[in-house]
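Why does residue order matter? Because the sequence determines the fold. Keep that principle in mind as you read this record.
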Amino acid sequence: MELENYTVKALFEDLRKTQAGDYLKDFTYPWDALKGIGELILKLGKELSPDEYDTRSDNVWIHKTASVAPTAYIHGPAIIGPRTEVRHCAFIRGNALVGKECVVGNSTELKNVIIFDNVQVPHYNYVGDSILGFKSHMGAGSITSNVKSDKTLVVVKDPQSGGKIETGLKKMGAILGDNVEVGCGSVLNPGTVIGSNTNIYPLSSVRGCVSAGSIYKKQGEIANKN
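Structure:
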């Protein structure tokens, strides 16, 4: 069964809010884009102007207006966009496309991600094999869990419609639509997809799909925003 509420078009209103826009529009479902993030960054990086971006190490492009703490570590391929702040002891492990005016916070770890513009992962976050939409925010200590405990392939499930799709991926964290707020200390389990303008309560353990415009209080207790 198709998951029409969790497509690229449904989750992300304006693909111009990421350098990956032209890439993402070729996919129906965003998780299908996870495999090619590294190759995408290498392609984009070669087209970036040296007047705007510094190349600090192999396949790492950092916009001249970005702020990167000297204690941060960035492994390529990676692109850090304009006016983005990478704070103390951030660990960017590679395959990270970070948009403009973002915050990658202290001790935050990124790996194989597309981060839209104006996204904040500001305090002790782990974001792996994930896509975070425009103006999404992950509270302190909230993380994506990207591998199932039994190591089987990730299946995206919608508890409302009963629909599910086998991704074929061993590693998939979370897909956040635009303007998603994830509360502090939450865990987004493998294959989590959260619709735009949704709030996740602090200390939540989220599984499956959460519809747009919702307030997620706990599993089985999800309210619509008024």
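The CA atoms of residues 56 and 206 lie 37 Å apart.
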